[in-house]
Design brief:
The chain is mostly helical and about 190 residues long. The protein has a single domain, classed as Orthogonal Bundle (Tetracycline Repressor, domain 2), CATH 1.10.357. The protein has ten helices and no strands. Helix 1 crosses helix 2 and helix 3 crosses helix 8. The longest helix is centred in the middle third of the chain and has 32 residues. The N and C termini lie far apart (about 55 Å).
């Protein structure tokens, strides 16, 4: 325990640092998933959604910690002081990347420029209320499906039919999201 206290301040500090590191890994995984997808706007968006679900499957429980730090961390104040700014930048970058994927689906083309912390236009992606609404809807529905698909949703984790159909339900959900985006006005 002395080593943990020395390097991280407390057990809570260690968990907060781990949460921040996992979030960095998540943002990187999301970008990599899209970069490895076929050069097609729908497939790139589908890759974003699939990567989020896969990330949750590979790291059970972390999606809850990342999305509800005040409930899961021992010292959320310490977490906010040390990591909130860095995680906010990662969140805004990830949201902007998702917004661009949505715009790509809407235009039927793939944007060739990779958005990074140094070049993403925050005002462009987060300043358009309709685009933010649509982006948030995709992000929230995908997060929900990731939690459910990872077996972190307590009510459904023991339902054999839900587990047996998980992959099919996920693929159908992703197709439904893409159809929804195609039909929405910006």
């Amino acid at each position: 325990m002395a080593m943990i206290n020395h390097y991280f301040g407390s057990r809570g500090g260690l968990i907060a640092e781990a949460a921040s590191t996992v979030y960095d890994l998540y943002v990187d995984a999301m970008a990599r998933g899209v970069a490895e997808a076929p050069h097609d706007p729908q497939e790139r968006l589908r890759a974003w959604m699939t990567t989020q679900v896969q990330f949750a499957l590979e790291r059970p429980g972390w999606m809850v910690v990342l999305n509800y730090p005040d409930l899961t961390l021992e010292n959320p104040v310490e977490f906010n002081e040390l990591f909130r700014a860095r995680m906010t930048l990662g969140f805004e970058l990830n949201l902007s990347r998702l917004a661009q994927l949505i715009l790509d689906v809407k235009t039927g083309s793939v944007t060739e420029i990779e958005l990074t912390e140094d070049n993403f236009d925050r005002a462009r992606y987060l300043g358009d209320p309709r685009l933010v609404e649509l982006t948030a809807s995709v992000a929230m529905s995908t997060l929900g499906s990731a939690v459910w698909g990872a077996g972190s949703h307590a009510p459904s984790r023991s339902t054999a039919e839900a587990l047996a159909l998980r992959d099919h339900v996920m693929a159908t959900h992703h197709s439904n999201v893409i159809r929804f985006i195609e039909g929405e006005e910006l």
